[in-house]
TrEMBL record:
This is Proline iminopeptidase. GO terms for cellular component: cytoplasm. It catalyses: Release of N-terminal proline from a peptide. It comes from Actinomadura litoris. It is found in: Cytoplasm.
């Protein structure tokens, strides 16, 4: 079974001015003359991790990673409540990917994304299909109203994680629990750390509760990064991912010709496999795999095997 490639360090990195007062952190590792591939991280607001470089053979790929607006090492950080998220939308991120492609003199590249990264990958490919050689998508998140209801109402994932749901729900006064998204929004976007700090922690505890099939310790994230993650994630969910009203499935015809791999864990509680299935029905030409012994995490053995198998198959 395939696993991660060995650790690899960037040989180039920098900050790219993308307008609106924003600079995105980017890095390149692997073979400078290899096949270009860009990794789009999850969240939104999560930032890239060193392990994200390891889905690709560094001898074959020129691996590009970047922190999306206002998170990770990009500037300014959403950890400062004074930083506006007005210019942080899916359209802005798609434009940032194009600007980074041009900055690095890449003609076309493989696009790889999981969870929110799958959403952004589909959005980018539908906007710029001529720039995409292949798509590798994991943990499909379509951000339809029914998808968000699964996560944020008692009729969905709460049935499987009742204690974690109770902690998430009970962090909000009973009088406001009819709309938890709005109630959390009022607190997460409050500039007072005494208000947004506990709300961000409760929001992210629920976000991470169902991430893998077998429990793993949550990542040790400091309060600043956690707050930035919570702010950006809420910002996108509250706005339907800034996706077109007709949703991403309506744009499949624009990418149908692109070789693609769709991978989803059978026991993915964050992005259940019905979303990947619906994408598969709309796009039967794409290779589709349900991993029977996996949840949402991209590093779970069965999922990791399928993802690395895909990048190996697409390498030169």
């Amino acid at each position: 079974m395939r696993g991660f490639y060995p650790e690899v360090e960037p040989h180039d990195s920098g900050l790219l001015d993308v307008g609106d007062g924003n600079e995105i952190y980017w890095e390149v590792c692997g073979n400078p003359d290899g096949k270009p591939a860009v990794f789009l991280h999850g969240g939104p607001g999560g930032g890239v991790l060193p392990a994200n470089r390891r889905f690709f053979d560094p001898a074959a790929y020129r691996i590009v990673l970047f922190d999306q607006r206002n998170c990770g090492r990009s500037l300014p950080s959403a950890s400062d409540p004074a930083v506006s998220l007005e210019h942080n939308t899916t359209a802005h991120l798609v434009a940032d990917i194009e600007r980074l492609r041009e900055h690095l003199s890449v003609d076309r590249w493989l696009v790889f994304g999981g969870s929110w990264g799958s959403t952004l990958s589909l959005s980018y490919a539908q906007a710029h299909p001529e720039r995409v050689t292949e798509l590798v998508l994991r943990g499909i998140w379509l951000i339809r109203p029914e998808d968000e209801a699964w996560s944020l109402t008692p009729g969905g994932a709460a049935h499987l994680f009742p204690a974690e749901w109770a902690a998430f729900r009970d962090a909000i006064p009973a009088a406001e629990r009819d709309d938890l998204l709005a109630a959390y929004g009022r607190r997460i976007h409050d500039p007072d750390p005494a208000v947004h700090g506990p709300a961000s922690r409760a929001w992210m505890d629920w976000e991470m509760a169902a991430n893998t099939l077998l429990p793993v310790p949550p990542p040790d994230v400091g309060p600043a990064l956690l707050y930035a993650f919570a702010r950006i994630l809420h910002h996108y969910i509250a706005n339907g991912g800034f996706l077109p009203e007709e949703g991403l499935l309506a744009g499949v015809d624009r990418v149908r010709h692109i070789p693609a791999v769709i991978v989803n864990g059978r026991y993915d509680i964050k992005t259940p496999p019905d979303q990947a299935w619906d994408l598969h029905l709309a796009w039967p030409e794409a290779e589709f795999t349900i991993v029977e012994d996996a949840g949402h995490g991209g590093s779970e053995p069965g999922t990791l095997h399928r993802l690395v198998e895909a990048t190996d198959r697409f390498r030169p």
